[in-house]
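Page 42, continued from yesterday. The earlier attempt failed because a stray header line got pasted into the input along with the sequence. Redoing it now with the clean sequence only.
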Amino acid sequence: MFDLVSPWQEVLDYWFEDGIERGWPSQPAMRKWFRAGAGDDAEIEHRFGSIVEAALQQELVDWERQPLSRLALILVLDQFPRHIFRRTPRAFSGDHRAATLAVEGLSRRMTANLPPCGQVFFVMPLMHAEDEDLHDLCVTSLEAIQQSAPAAVKGSIEGHLVAAREHRDIIRRFGRFPHRNKVLGRDSSDDERLFLETHSGYGQ
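This time it went through. Structure tokens are written below.
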């Protein structure tokens, strides 16, 4: 008799590969996080497109109940739309819900027993928010994650912490991410246009 893998476990297995057991994944798994290509986008859409749509329609509320499944739901709302709907407004369609789940989960200490890689992506929606208070929470959360992490993964978390501080600086300056303006049909201020001439932004 075969054990059936739950859909949320499939999400975690795809995104983290060996990271849940190791605490931090090996290099091949990390490539898809921030250096994904068109093939990765197509695979995510093929494998998880229907799950993303269900999550966006708030049909996966049962995933909210325990830490690992909530982590999977956050990934489905925060990360996967950025692949499936790349360079369109829908890339951000799960952001608000993902941030809400992250904040609520932190208040309930749901990250306490997650591996470091899971803790980092649990709070990642806060780095994507156009809200300074959420960025402050993201930075302090990542600082705490790094402090409590095993020595072997502290360096990996450092890169995320540096990025979080840089994202927060942009929000403090503009109140939003100027590199999203074009996709979202927003007019850029003179200051934002100057910034975009000298800063590549952060993907989506």
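Notes: DSSP finds twelve helices and no strands in the chain.
Reminder to self: strip header lines before submitting.
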